[in-house]
Amino acid sequence: MLITGGSRGIGAAIARRFAKEGYRIVIHYLQGHEQANETARECIALGAEVLTVSADLGSKDQLTRMKEKLDTLGLKPDIVVNNAGISHYGMLIDVAEEQWDHVMNVNLKGMFLCTQLFMPHMISQKYGRFINVSSVWGMTGAACEVLYSTTKGGINAFTKALAKELAPSGVTVNAVAPGVVETDMMSTFDQAEKEALAQEIPVGRFGSTEEIASLVYFLALPESSYITGQIISPNGGWLT
């Protein structure tokens, strides 16, 4: 299996969850070399075989070379978790064109390129799983996060459409759209802001990366074959 952006946060938790089940795991990262290696060591300690690879998701050439490297090692993932993403906070009127292009390249173009590169193998064997990590903001939108919300909404539409396209081939496509999860993305909030936000959530707390990883794991199982084209949002009842 391949996890993009697998060096930290939700991606690292997904890697550890699959490692517990003995999967062969490819952890993709861009710049977090040490973090990727640390996550790999954790997964190896859990009994998994792990490879780390670096590539710019916005570059088709780099992703093609990454796939060629996996091919030479006999690694043809039939589970791809498109997890890599970056956030952006700010008024739309202040968003520069370069910022727009950068976030779009990572969050949307990267998912498109990875999916396109790895889907032929899944189609040929009549089995595969694409699991795309979205956000609750892709479902509802968020003020001061128009750019981020747009990319996540695009992921949701991509997921629904591709699921119909690949269903006859035995390949499922689903998205997980978490609510507030305790990750590095929350580092800009102080304790008072976090407490106020948690009070808005019916269960009274943020989600954990492990909870998101467990949902991703379930969607990857053969038993989940009748679930496709779904946007599943673990958000503690925040959005119903």
Automatic annotation (TrEMBL):
The molecular function terms in GO held by this entry are: oxidoreductase activity
A UniProt-annotated Pfam family:
adh_short_C2
Q: Does the record bear Oxidoreductase in its keywords?
A: yes
Which GO annotations describe the biological process of this protein?
A: monocarboxylic acid metabolic process
Which keywords accompany this UniProt record? Oxidoreductase
Which parts pass through the membrane? none
SUPFAM superfamilies named in the record: NAD(P)-binding Rossmann-fold domains (SSF51735)
Q: Which Gene3D superfamilies match?
A: NAD(P)-binding Rossmann-like Domain (3.40.50.720)
| InterPro entries (UniProt xref) | NAD(P)-bd_dom_sf (IPR036291), Sc_DH/Rdtase_CS (IPR020904), SDR (IPR050259), SDR_fam (IPR002347)
Q: List the PANTHER family hit by this protein, alphabetically.
A: 3-OXOACYL-(ACYL-CARRIER-PROTEIN) REDUCTASE, 3-OXOACYL-[ACYL-CARRIER-PROTEIN] REDUCTASE FABG
Q: Which family does it belong to?
A: Belongs to the short-chain dehydrogenases/reductases (SDR) family.
Q: Which NCBIfam families match?
A: EF_P_mod_YmfI (NF047420), PRK07231.1 (NF005559), PRK12826.1-2 (NF009466)
What's the name of the protein? 3-oxoacyl-ACP reductase
Q: Which organism is it from?
A: Paenibacillus montaniterrae
